[in-house]
C-alpha cells in the first residue's frame, strides 16, 4: 500500500487503535483498507479486526498472491473468474459460520435460514462487485447460493 493510494499521512494509522501502518511489518499484508474514490480512507490493523474482517484480509492476500501482481487488468478472464469464485466460496463459508456462531451465542439449537439473503450477504462488501451492473451482481448471488446449497447439502434434504 503505497502513498499513491493514501489521501493523507493521517490515514496511515488504524482507525480503532491508532497503530501506524508500516510496509516493513510482518503483518503489513493483513491490514484491511477501506477505499473511497480510489483513495484509502481508513485502515484497520490485524489486532483490531473482527474474525470476519481478518478473513477478508486473508482473502485479499490470496487474491494478490494468486495474481502475482496487484494489477487486476493484467489477469486473463479465466484467472479473474477463478479468483472471484474463490472469494465467493470463502465469503459463503464465513456467512455460514457467522450465522452458526450467532445462533450458538444466543443459545439456539437451530439457525434461521434464508438462502437468498445469505447469498446476498456473501457478496456484500466484495469490492469487485461494487458498481457492477445488477446482472453481474445477480450472477454473483446465484453463484454464492449454489456454493451455500452445496456446503449445506440442501439438495439432499430437498430444500
Q: Which sequence of SSEs, written as H and E, runs from N to C?
A: EEHHHH
Q: What percentage of amino acids are in beta strands?
A: 5-15%
How many strands appear in the DSSP assignment?
Answer: 2
Structural class: mainly alpha
* Low-confidence sequence ranges: 1-10
The backbone outline, from C-alpha atoms, is globular
Give the number of domains.
Answer: 2
**End-to-end distance:** 44 Å
Helix content: 40-55%
Strands side by side in the biggest sheet: 1-2
Mean pLDDT: 78
Main β-sheet description: 2 strands, antiparallel
Task: Kindly provide the radius of gyration, computed on alpha-carbon positions and rounded to a whole number of angstroms.
Answer: 17 Å
Number of helices: 4
Organism: Spelaeicoccus albus
Protein name: Zn ribbon nucleic-acid-binding protein
Amino acid at each position: 500500500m503505497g502513498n499513491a493510494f493514501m489521501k493523507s499521512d493521517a490515514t496511515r494509522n488504524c482507525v480503532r487503535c491508532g497503530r501506524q501502518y508500516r510496509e516493513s511489518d510482518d503483518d503489513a499484508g493483513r491490514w484491511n483498507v477501506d477505499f473511497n474514490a480510489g483513495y484509502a480512507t481508513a485502515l484497520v490493523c490485524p489486532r483490531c479486526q473482527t474474525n470476519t474482517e481478518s478473513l477478508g484480509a486473508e482473502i485479499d492476500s490470496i487474491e494478490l498472491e494468486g495474481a502475482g501482481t496487484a494489477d487486476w487488468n493484467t489477469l486473463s478472464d479465466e484467472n479473474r473468474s477463478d479468483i472471484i469464485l474463490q472469494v465467493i466460496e470463502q465469503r459463503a463459508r464465513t456467512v455460514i459460520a457467522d450465522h452458526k456462531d450467532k445462533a450458538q451465542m444466543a443459545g439456539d439449537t437451530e439457525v434461521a435460514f434464508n438462502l437468498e439473503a445469505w447469498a446476498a450477504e456473501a457478496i456484500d462488501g466484495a469490492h469487485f462487485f461494487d458498481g457492477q451492473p445488477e446482472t453481474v451482481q445477480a450472477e454473483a448471488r446465484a453463484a454464492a447460493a449454489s456454493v451455500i446449497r452445496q456446503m449445506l447439502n440442501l439438495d439432499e434434504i430437498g430444500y
